[in-house]
Structure formats: C-alpha cells, structure tokens
Amino acid sequence: MTHRNWLTTGVVCAAIAFVVATGAFFHSQQPALADSRVMILAVDPQPLVAVTKGGERSFSIEIADTSAEREAGLMFREEMADDHGMLFVFEEPRDVSFWMKNTPMPLDLIFVGQDGKVRAIKQGEPQSEAMISPGEPVRFVLELKAGTAARGGIEDGDLLRHPAIGTAHN
Predict the structure, then answer these.
(1) What's the number of CA atoms in the CB half-sphere (13 Å) around residue 125?
(2) How many CA atoms within 13 Å lie on the side-chain side of 83?
(3) Alpha helices in 50-97 (DSSP H)
(4) In the predicted model, is pLDDT for residue 121 greater than 50?
(5) Whole-model pTM?
(6) How many other C-beta atoms are found inside a 10 Å radius of the C-beta of residue 98?
(7) Where do the coiled-coil regions begin and end (predicted)?
(8) How many other CB atoms sit within 10 Å of the CB of residue 144?
(9) pLDDT of residue 167
(10) CB 65 within 8 A of CB 164
(11) ∠ at Cα 95 (32, 97), nearest 5°?
C-alpha cells in the first residue's frame, strides 16, 4: 500500500511540474506586458509611409494588433529612433483613448481613420494619466517621438500607407 501511495504522489508531482513548466514556457513566448519591462515587437518588414504635402516620409514600425500588445504599447520605453514608431491596429473603427502612464518618452499620437487618413494629431506627456482621444472613431493610431509629425510635415488629412492599413479598406 505504501508503494502505491509513493507512486501516486510521484505521478501527481510530475503532473504538477509539467503544468507549471508548460505555463512558464507559453508565458515566456508572449510579449512582455506592462510589468515594468519594455515590450519590443518585431519590426514590420514593410515601412509605413506618410504622404504629406511636402513629400513622403517613411517609418519603420512595430505593429500592436492584439489587446495585450495595444495595452502595453510603448510603456517603459525610454528611447526610440526618430524614424521609428508603433502602429496600433484595431479590429474596427472605434472611440479610443490613450494615456501615457508608465511611458517616459513624450510622443505624438496620430489618429487614423479606416481610409488611412489622419484624423487628429495629439501630444502625449510622459507619465501622464490624462486621457488622449481624437474625439471621433478611428481604426489606427501611430505613435512617434514627440515633434516627429511636425518635423515631417504630417497634418490632418494626410494619408498613411502600409499593408496593415491597406487591408482595412475591405
């Protein structure tokens, strides 16, 4: 009887160890979330292009298209290249609000409609809990370093081109 109890205990312990190890593995495969670690997503192979009155501006981007990725965004990121940004992709046009809590960099938030046209450009202050919203439904938000939109001549009505935006027209 004692042998059977030890065997059962061993099997149960092995099963628990397997579940814990599996959970740890799959958790480590997810992007780092808002837990004081920077989330770095893969840079999309296609650049995002802003078509402005002064010409085209190209940006390398990370795409945040899941709830977890959109929630973490650029939180805890302390630096970013001038020609780099993060594109937030929502399933459908909606009212969105962003805040800058846990984001130490000032940002430009470019709110973009389903058609790829810029609807509003707002500034985000580091560590602020103030809500930032365009005041109308949008499908995309592009975050860039503060001042990048002005330096690049990006204005309301300009067009952003990227495959993630191009597929949204359907």
Answers:
(1) 4
(2) 8
(3) 67-72
(4) yes
(5) 0.78
(6) 21
(7) none
(8) 27
(9) 60
(10) yes
(11) 45
